[in-house]
């Protein structure tokens, strides 16, 4: 089983959207025995909360459900996951600060690097303080990046 954890700041907008999109693709493609997915936030503000209502509404309009309740990323997550996919450079710094060694650090990647043509350092922008169009943009980015991630795994891990 290849285990992926998405990480953003609050674990209520971007990382639950990424998790819901990837889980949908896993179900659709019958990859449930090969790939598992979870999410977490680097901050503690929203622990125990369901995803933001705007993220849930955006996903629902496209026929996707968003899972879970918010939790905080911990050092033990480096042992529980093969790949830790962060949304932006700030999440990346926060997660790398918790890494114990090079093996931990190697697991951390920007999620959007898997979106074709987006670029190695591209970010998933934080939609929290903006309008509804920001949530639509986050969903679209997550969908393209999740498809790119599955293609990467098919080529690199599952050959
Ligand atoms: P997320 O969005 O990191 O995508 O879940 C945010 C959620 C909450 C806050 C910031 C970003 N906040 O400042 O409370």
Explain what this protein looks like in three dimensions:
With 159 residues, the chain is of the alpha/beta class. It has a single domain (2-157), classed as Response regulator (Rossmann fold, 3-Layer(aba) Sandwich). 43% of the residues lie in helices and 13% in strands. The protein is built from six helices and four strands. It has helices spanning 14-29, 53-61, 77-80, 89-98, 102-106, 132-156; strands at 2-8, 35-41, 83-86, 108-110. A four-stranded parallel beta sheet has the order 2-1-3-4, sandwiched between helices. It is globular and about 40 Å long. It binds 4-nitrophenyl phosphate.
Identify the notable features of this structure and list them briefly.
binds 4-nitrophenyl phosphate, alpha/beta, Rossmann fold, 159 residues, four-stranded parallel sheet, 6 helices
Describe the structure in brief:
It contains 6 helices and 4 strands. With 159 residues, it is of the alpha/beta class.
């Amino acid at each position: 089983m290849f285990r992926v954890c998405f990480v953003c700041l609050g674990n209520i907008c971007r990382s639950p959207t990424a998790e819901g999109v990837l889980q949908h693709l896993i179900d659709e493609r019958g990859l449930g025995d090969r790939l598992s997915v979870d999410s977490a936030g680097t901050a503690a503000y929203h622990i125990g909360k369901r995803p933001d209502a705007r993220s849930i509404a955006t996903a629902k309009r496209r026929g996707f459900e968003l899972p879970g309740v918010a939790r905080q990323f911990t050092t033990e997550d480096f042992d529980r996951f093969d790949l830790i996919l962060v949304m932006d450079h700030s999440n990346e710094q926060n997660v790398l600060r918790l890494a114990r060694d090079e093996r931990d650090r190697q697991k951390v990647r920007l999620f959007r690097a898997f979106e074709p043509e987006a670029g190695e350092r591209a970010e998933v922008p934080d939609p929290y303080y903006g309008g509804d169009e920001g949530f639509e943009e986050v969903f679209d980015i997550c969908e393209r990046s999740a498809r790119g991630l599955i293609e990467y795994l098919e080529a690199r891990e599952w050959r």
